[in-house]
## 1
Amino acid sequence: MSTTKSSKRRAAASATAADADAKAVASDNAASSPEERRALHRELLHSMLLQRRFEERTAEMYAIGRIGGFCHLYIGQEAVSTGFISLLRPDDYVITTYRDHGQALARGMTPRAIMAELFGRVDGCVGGKGGSMHLFDKSLGFLGGHGIVGGHIPIAAGVGFAIKYRGGDQVIVCFMGEAAVNNGAFHEALNMAALWKLPCLFVIENNRYGMGTAVERASAINDIYKRGASYDMPREMVDGQDVFAVRDAAERAIARARTESTPTLLEIRTYRFMGHSMSDAVSGTYRTKEELEQYLKRDPISLLRARMEADGDLTEDDWNAMDDEIKAVVQDSIDFAENSPEPPLEALMQDVLVDTTSD
Amino acid sequence: MPVITYREALNQALREEMARDDRVFLMGEEVAVYQGAYKVSKGLLQEFGEMRVVDTPITELGFAGVGVGAAMVGLRPIIEFMTWNFALLALDQVVNAAAKMLYMTSGQFNMPMVFRGPNGAALQLAAQHSQAWESWLAHIPGLKVVVPATPYDAKGLLKAAIRDDNPVCFLEGEMLYNTKGEVPEEEYVIPIGKAEVKREGDHVTLISHGKMVLTALQAADTLAKEGIRCEVLDLRTVRPMDVEAITASVRKTNRAVVVEEGWEVCGVGAQVVDYVQRTCFDYLDAPVLRVHQVDAPMPYAKNLEKAAKPDVPKTIAAVKQVLYLD
């Protein structure tokens, strides 16, 4: 059982996350000198702010028809992607759901490749064939971008199996929403991952709503991490608005996967500041404006910024400079996407099958 | 040439390909300790060890997905379904993941994997265990669907399927496992997508695949005694389908009957007929007829089951009808 006292405390804190102010920030991990701390924190802030600014413009581009189809924004959850992915090695793997822009950016996919993909252009990360829900980059070990709730969880177990098969020490981080845990694929995958001791992190981003259905209306157990008990799997609940709390938990789980080849189930309590998708009004019929406003007080980026300011690691000028730089990068991605051609018609029938030989 | 069973032929293919390439592994229910529900994987655990011959819980969706994940990062999984009936639970992984991954990723991730197991009805297993799935699977771009009829084809095509860099659905026959045939000792691989004329004739073409090829051959034997010369074309692969071979045979005989195990509506035969009317319209002397399971779930009672299945008498009747002999 790896539910530590501190994580229990944090879990208790996050259970009332909406009532808390922007003050709760967990330990300052992995930085030994003030310079290192400052550099690390700036890197985390940069990663999270890039996701935020990128998606703000994504919403704008969707509104003017540059982006089509389903488009699910990650705004409010950036500490989760950054918290985990900032601790991974280049040879580790990430797999996620259709709400995938944040993780893709955190993993290092360029804003240009993502924006061009959202625009359905040839320079997109998958040549315009995937769109918002299907971002992939083999060179980054970024394995998608999957559109069926729960469908990617057994795939993550398979990547864990392959790592073990080869005797490697990589890990795979599998992000999912809390609604996926009611799906059979979740249980089948977790059972095998625990049974075979696969190096997987199953990261549940509990943003409280599966589309418009609150977790209490969908899951018999509201503390979702407890489901790990069914598989005797180490498990934790974590405050997902605090990037340091996320990193603390991620570090423990990664070490467990890498050195003991043991999976972990992590429930990260977070909140989606936007609607489920672009067709869902921000507060919708299923949650109150007051609830949203309470959660907005614990914006993960504001929390990190406040912490850095308190530490003397970030001035207003620093913030403005970073923000300007990121906004320019995002603008550049839009310009790039606008100028990228549509996929050629020949692409239509390409990559249905790969040329193969049985020799 | 040695005569071995279809089961042994598959076992040889698995053993040879696992020895040839250590990225190949076999995973499924009862494949290891139990030696295979139908003993297709007999001896493989002892030869290759438990990392490469992996017993799973009864969790078809889950272990099909494990195969997809392993294939994404470079292994070459063989996922065994105890029968294709149970694979229905895994179709999200077969259809939404394996079949589409290459396309969705613009070629970044191919899926070098095989989904295999027995397909179709055996004897008195009733509705949920007696289904032929090839038409469902053949509907999906991104998959190859192989349905071998003989031990020779089973071995050569399974080796090709394992070496293929695409997801291949390999449909065996429970009633075929004990059938015997000549299989050479030297290595051979049969290309996927090539039909084979199993018997030559010039009066009518019987087009079939899998277990029904044997039915077609038996019907042809009987009809030969009446002077009717049937050509039996074994598709061997239903996706991609060998349209050239179909066209060549039907243009020669001017008549065709399609014999398949599954249901009529949107079946494999419907696709064959579509190709025939497009490529042989001016060559046809009769409408193309189809022999298939009746349009009902499979019943248990022996007499009803027999009445439900396509068989030799039904095939003979269809042949006589296209020859206007009735």
## 2
Amino acid sequence: MRGKGIWSSMVEVPAAPARLWPRLQLRALFYRPRGDSPIKRLFIHLALWVACLIAVYPVLRVVTISLRPANKLLTTSLAIIPEDATLANYMELLFGRPGRPTEFYLWIWNSLVITVTTATIGLLLSATAAYAFSRFRFPGRNAGLIFLLSTQMFPAAMLLLPLFIMISRLGLINSYLGLVIAYSVTAVPFSIWMLKGYYDTIPRDLEEAALIDGASRLGVLWHIIRPLSTPALAIAFLFNFMSSWNEYIVARIILNKREMYTWPLGLWTFTEQYTVLWGKFAAASILVAVPVTLLFLYSSRWLISGLTLGGVKE
Amino acid sequence: MGALTPSLMIRSLGQVLGFVFAIAVVLALLEGYVYLLFFRRPRSLPSAVFARGVQSAIAILLVLLTLRFLDRMGLVADLVAAWGLTPVVTLPERLWDAWAALTPMPWRLILPPVAVLVLEAAIYLTGEPRPSRLGLAYVLVLPALVGISFLIIIPFLFEVRLAFSNMAMYTAQNPQFGLQYGIENFIKVFTGPVAKDATFFEVLGRTVLWTVINVSLHVTGGLILALLLNRSMRLRGLYRTILILPWAVPSTITAMAWRNEFDFRYGFFNILLRNAQQFFTDLAAQTQTLPLIYDLFNWLSQAIHPVPWRQDPTWAFISVVMTNVWLGIPFMMVVILGGLQSISQEYYEAAEIDGASKWQQFRHITLPLLRPVLVPATILGTVWTFNRFEVIYLVTQGGPQEKTDILVSSLYKAIFQFYRYGFSAAFALVIFLILLLWSIIYLRITRGLRGVYE
């Protein structure tokens, strides 16, 4: 083995003397992490290329289909860019046809309203409780924690029947509120669990110092914990947003009027009519997926840390 | 029809903002109520009479409102009727009607909360502070407690009651409750079909198979990719981003896209298989003179052929598993990668000095140190896979003949396709018990782990 510790520290020196630069660069070129041989590295890259291809190809296929003209939808061609590629599907979705306005914006709007409301309610009901579960010992705390953990174990489908009956007796079928209530069932306990994990990582010293200085517990909560927890609240919001944004199955039973559809339901109407509307389905998928995917990738670091806080750390 | 208009936007915003605002107001008043209970003590006898009087009146009203809510949901309707409680339970409603007759519309809604607020302020002013150690905890927990009671606890109790009823499509309005219905429902879960064709144990077996295959492939795939990525190399960030893609793209979209790829004629997999078959047929035609090689190509050209993904139960099951494996690997990869990065390099350097092989390093350093990440992730992954039926629903809809249904998707069908409400509630409780057993095991294991690693 080479003395890799020395090499890496030299490579990372930010401002090396000018005279040393050429030598250093040469060494950087031959610096081998963990001593992998070139052949091994080649195979690693090959394997990762194959994996990436598998990961990306199904998505690429959707792009392909979205670019096909209507008369070439049914083809056995595997070309990524189809012949006679056209943006007609996108145009029809975005601007509609004469005499037939597009429903696309309506579906996106419905989804947006429902999702943002759910995420807001999730935070409203959970933020303070998470702090209490993290900091206070009170009768009922352990029972509450076990209850919260077990809610992570059970599918929303478990409670779908009573919820459906309750929502329909409240007259909330085909309304935003019905779906918001159904989604909150998972959003609230999840947010508590995740935020509790976050508050656990904030050292208590800060609060204790403030308490010694004469602050009240409420004052501590407002002046110290609230500003510190903004990022965690943002993550919880984003999480609840993501999980209800993509939801299809519950939406299907609560909403059955076309003008109330969220985008997953709207997309499904394209695929229901067999192969005819594949192009529109694919174009709509791309239009929805691009912003959401970018948001996910951008925030994935925090999302993942949030998930491990809630799930993996007890 | 169908277009988004400004008036529609304003209407929908008004609806949800009103809802959120109403929740906030009710919660704030409740918080004030609980705060006064814990942190304020009446200063004199008259103020004590006033405060306790108002507080018990509000408490009674809250109880009555909850009862009325349960009654309207049909959760306790039969009990209320049987015990002659209807006049008591409908009291808040009759009060409200009288109130509504007196006051015009905006005031009708604005005045009651204001009145409660004024009463609370009066209690505050006529009292003196009292220290409370637990008060703050309960004040903080209250919103979640209220939310979870209405969102989870009441629906769950409702489900238990429904399991002991004969509620179905034609008895949805006035179901009968009784022990005999419950027994009948639970017997039907284990003996009859759970949706239309499939029986409970058949579906249970398939669910276990589905979970085991998926989770083991998720963990294996995620582990391999994480090990490949866990080194400094070029393009690492790019690989990582692309490999997360199946998780990042909305799963509804990818599941629907995969569903299209299983089309017999135009789906990707059959195109691929057909092309491969064509390729080997051509090869066989060209190598007819070479005995062994011809046999091989001939055999291949017959063995490889397009597959009826939608019609054949086995292939349909394989198609959903393929989709779900593709969807689930990135999550495991990311979790395991996080675990790998927290392992100090010094262990490996020490092992290399001692002459340990790569496999030995993996076996005796990587795996044990990954355990705290791997065990909870696997167990949670198991539960999620067990519960996750939207992939099945979107790709095969459980077909053909319910041969790709898992427990939760059968439950969904029993409720929303066959309207067997009482039966479905019993079925849901059975699934609940299975998951409860598993989560007890989970708690045991993680507790045990905590003991080991602390």
